[in-house]
């Protein structure tokens, strides 16, 4: 059984209804940017997509790095899915590592278990990000987009965790 398709996100707004031939063109593989891939894992597809959209919007004119979401379960419910996470990570892997940011609880446990498997189900160089979901997402998407390596992307997320609001 094949893993479900991961949802790649971009800074461009989604089109409403398009002719079939245009939809086929959109499903072609994205250009490889040679940057760190980013996966946002949430218990909710809507939350993951919203955080991805905000992060992309804050990039301004910077070309987005590979970004995918793994939100909810394959049937659209609340929860986490190893299959969606694996598919998302593989879809953004360009050989420079994949930063996987989780919202909480079972999302973290699922990613940790995928990383611990021998062989790992996630691409080589995948790492879990220890940062708050929204702030971390903005930090890692920007740092990846401007060409930071995996260690720099993870460090940016950790800096976001320490940002004081008062």
Find the structural class using helix and strand composition: alpha/beta
Assign the CATH topology. Answer: Rossmann fold
N-to-C SSE series? EHEHEHEHEHH
Binned, the helix content reads 40-55%
Q: How many distinct folded domains?
A: 1
* Assigned CATH architecture: 3-Layer(aba) Sandwich
Strand line-up of the largest beta sheet: 1-3-2-4-5
Number of helices in the DSSP assignment: 6
Radius of gyration equals 15 Å
Q: Would you identify the regions where 5 or more consecutive residues have pLDDT less than 50?
A: 1-30
Quick take:
By secondary structure, the chain is of the alpha/beta class. 41% of the residues lie in helices and 13% in strands.
SSE topology sketch:
Blueprint: E1 7-8, H1 20-26, E2 37-42, H2 45-57, E3 67-71, H3 82-92, E4 98-102, H4 105-116, E5 126-129, H5 133-145, H6 150-161
Parallel strand pairs: 2-3, 2-4, 4-5
Antiparallel strand pairs: 1-3
Helix pairs in contact: 2-5, 5-6
Write out key terms for the chains shown.
alpha/beta; Rossmann fold; 5 strands; disordered N terminus
Overall description:
With 166 residues, the protein is α/β, with parallel strands linked by helices. The chain has one domain (34-161): Phosphotransferase system, mannose-type IIA component (Rossmann fold). 41% of the residues lie in helices and 13% in strands. The protein is built from six helices and five strands; from the N terminus they run βαβαβαβαβαα. The chain has helices at residues 20-26, 45-57, 82-92, 105-116, 133-145, 150-161, and strands spanning 7-8, 37-42, 67-71, 98-102, 126-129. A five-stranded mixed beta sheet has the order 1-3-2-4-5, sandwiched between helices. Helix 2 links the parallel strand 2 (37-42) and strand 3 (67-71). The longest helix has 13 residues, at 45-57. The radius of gyration is 15 Å and the shape is globular.
């Amino acid at each position: 059984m094949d893993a479900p398709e991961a949802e790649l996100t971009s800074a461009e707004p989604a089109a409403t209804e398009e002719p079939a031939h245009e939809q086929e063109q959109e499903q072609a593989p994205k250009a490889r940017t040679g940057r760190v891939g980013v996966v946002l894992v949430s218990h909710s597809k809507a939350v993951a997509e919203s955080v991805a959209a905000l992060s992309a919007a804050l990039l301004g004119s910077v070309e987005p790095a590979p970004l995918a979401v793994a939100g909810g379960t394959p049937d659209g419910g609340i929860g986490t899915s190893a299959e969606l996470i694996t598919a998302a990570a593989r879809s953004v892997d360009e050989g420079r590592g994949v930063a996987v940011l989780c919202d909480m609880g079972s999302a973290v446990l699922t990613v940790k278990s995928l990383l611990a498997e021998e062989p790992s189900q996630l691409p080589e160089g995948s790492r879990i990000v220890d940062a708050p979901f929204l702030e971390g997402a903005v930090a890692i998407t920007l740092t990846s987009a401007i060409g930071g390596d995996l260690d720099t992307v993870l460090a940016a997320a950790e800096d976001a965790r320490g940002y004081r609001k008062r």
